[in-house]
Amino acid sequence: MHGGVSTAPLGVPPSRSALRETLSRVGTYTLRRVVVLLVTVVIGTYLAVLIANWGGEVDRMREAQCKEQAGMSLQADPLLQLLPPQERQRRYEQEVERCKTLQGLDRPFLQRSLEYLVDALTLSLGRANQLTSDSGSREVRNILLERLPATLLLFGTADLVLFFMAISLALFLSRQYGSFLDRVIVALAPTSTAPGWFYGIFLILIFAGLLHLLPFGGMVDIPPPTDTPAYATSVLRHLILPVAAIVIGSICLSIYSWRTFFLIYSSEDYVEMAKAKGLTSSMIQRRYILRPTLPPIITGFSFMLISLWQGAIILETVFNWPGLGRLLYSAIGSQDTPVIIGTVVIYGYLLALTVFVLDIVYALIDPRVKVGERGVGT
Amino acid sequence: MSAVLAGLRQLRHYPSALIGMTIVLSLLLLALLTVLTIPYSEAIRMWRGGEGVWDENPELARPTWFQLFSARKLPQTIIVDTRQGGKEIANQPDGTRIVNASLRFEFPYDELPSEVGLWLSTTHKETQPFVMLRWLKPNGQEIAFEERTPQGKDRYFLSRDERLRERLKARSIEEALFYEGTGSNARLLRGTYELAVEGILFEPDADLDARLVVYGKVHGIAGTDAQRRDLGVALLWGTPIALTFGLLAAVGTTVFSLTISAVGTWFGGRLDAIIQRITEVNAMLPGLTLLVMIGMFYSRSLWVMLLAIILLSMFSLGIKTYRAIFLSLKEAPYIEAARAYGAGSLRIVFRYMIPRVIPMLIPAFVTAIPGFVFLEASLSILGLGDPDIPTWGKLLSDAYANEALFKGHYYWVLEPAVLLMLTGMSFAMSGFALDRMFNPRLRTA
């Protein structure tokens, strides 16, 4: 699958052709992943279109938009206002029909669903039924894109905190195997079955409700501070509890399973050898333990992030965080079909992008991708 | 049998498994008791509420055990009815009749009641009776209310009578009715209160009854919500529902995943490859948002959701793990023996391969249950919970919709949250411990 065995033996400085081969391998790998991820997004979106249209929901949405447009064009033309009501009604219906033909509502379902698929993938979902963006736009794309930064801020921060905290604590505990702290973490591993939002409720109760230390929710104070440092501080204060909730919801299990990984690898012969050579423990950890364990950890982390993203929907709702999850919640409340489909699509993209980024990291740290799978094994 | 006993003996070394299983068993017991004592239809009727079901419950009352943490004696709901006696009817010379009743009650508490309500019910044909009401405090002070002419069943919420409040110049009706003095000198009066009801009936067959409800601030074992519903009903019925939902979802997912991966591994080739690709794609699908769409456009029924969840999660990542096990099993001598005597493919898959791995999967299965219980709660919070069935998630979602945390109704959030936590933790603890027992490679703690 990777185009043959690497000819360059390990440890020899890479020649020009070897470098080219590495690049092409990494390139093939990346391309393969991109294709798989794109297929995933397309399938997810098509599923969303199918689910929505089985109940005729997308068709209704299109029809409503046609009617709205026809009504507006009728109102906008002062000359048409002078026509008798029957004539106006006739014109209106004509216009609706024309628009419906244009939108393909008279064509067979399969063909239409594929058109919807393309529209959904490009987020050209038209106008929302009720929701508007803060800037007043009713275009679904604008509404979605406006909410995206808030979600990215919250989850980017939380994921980074989670990853680095978990990995450093896991390394630390793997050296203290059997200690009190180690036992505590092992005992606490089951706490990760509860999602982050669940701990969010308790955090809000304690830190906002009882202690009044941090805000109940939202992203900035109301009214938002005008100068940049004050604004940043305010956002930071609002960020603490939701990030803490996400981290608490996943950290114990991550530490527990990664620590077990490290423990297994730290009893390998080559680690003993490194110890015998007198290398410092930090060097052993970095080069001999972390190096071989990171690829599987990255893979595991990428699947954890997928479930975290979905938990985001409820977490944002609980914390009133103005991101995509909160948007989905309001869209459910106001039965706003275009926005709901848009959210499914954008979540599909987000998941694929997350996995892709981690795939690249994986390619960078896993030697098997660089030198070919068979090159290492033999 | 001896294997089971040995397993149980081994369990002693895993205190977390013991704790977890004890909690799981008590939850199962609670679920069983609930189903036996409160019939399902009754629970649904009570939870739907509506006129007459919860009228005499206080609104947003704390659970009674909250009293333990409070130095002040919190009021319980007091109900006095003329049908319990104390009603006198006197015939008048002009053909009318006069009803005299006094609704008397003790009020020994340290806080004001939350509300005061009066139900007047009359039986008359044409002319409505005329009712005069007087409130007598323990200190002898008297407050006269406006006259009423009740029609059939008359519900008079004194607490919401704005005109009365203005006339009495009080901050609230309850203060006017239960305080002595005004302003900063005001204090709550304890003792015997009385509502004197005097009615004039204009018809010979007419009758009048009154029922006074002094709503408390604590109620039952679980308190009440903003619709006066007893949270206990939902907490109790939430138990069997959460357990059934979690178990069914876990069973469904595991059974389908197992079958799919066993069939795929056995037949191999293209089928196996397709299953592998579907699994990879499925792992990256935004499943929760798809569930949201199903809830939005089709049905919010718990059982439809269950089916959708199973469908979306049967191509789970578990398939990869099972596949690895099956691949090595496929080459095992006993499978070869089965083949040699001519067993068919399906027979081998279902009678030889799948049963062999089931014990290995029990830990993963047990650990998967809480995930589904929390998934139901997540859907409820998004407003996609089953509209009829009371679940813990519905309670959380109601509490959230009523800003319970912000307004300080902590019991409303904490009760379902603690039950969810107990369920989640107990299954997870048992599952993790079982995992360490069955997979000695991980036995590191």
Low-confidence stretches of chain A: 1-11, 374-378
| Average residue pLDDT of chain A | 81
Please count the beta strands of chain B (DSSP E, at least 2 residues each).
Answer: 11
According to CATH, the fold-level topology of the largest domain in chain A is: MetI-like fold
Q: How would a textbook summarize the main sheet of chain B? A: 5 strands, antiparallel
Shape of chain B: elongated
Overall mean pLDDT score of chain B? 84
* Annotation field: number of helices of chain B: 15
Provide a descriptive summary of the structure in words:
The complex is a heterodimer of chains A (378) and B (445). Chain A is mainly α and 378 residues long. Chain A has two domains: 36-121, no CATH class; 149-336 and 355-377, MetI-like fold. In chain A, 77% of the residues lie in helices and 0% in strands. The radius of gyration of chain A is 27 Å and the shape is globular. Residues 1-11 and 374-378 of chain A have low confidence and may be disordered. Chain B is elongated, with a radius of gyration of 32 Å. The model of chain B has no long low-confidence stretch (mean pLDDT 84). Chain B has a five-stranded antiparallel sheet, with no helix packed on it. Chain B has 445 residues and is α+β, with helices and mostly antiparallel strands. Chain B folds into two domains: 2-47 and 229-442, MetI-like fold (Orthogonal Bundle), CATH 1.10.3720; 74-215, Sandwich (Jelly Rolls), CATH 2.60.120. At the A-B interface, helix 1, helix 7, helix 8, helix 11 and helix 12 of A face helix 7, helix 8, helix 12 and helix 15 of B.
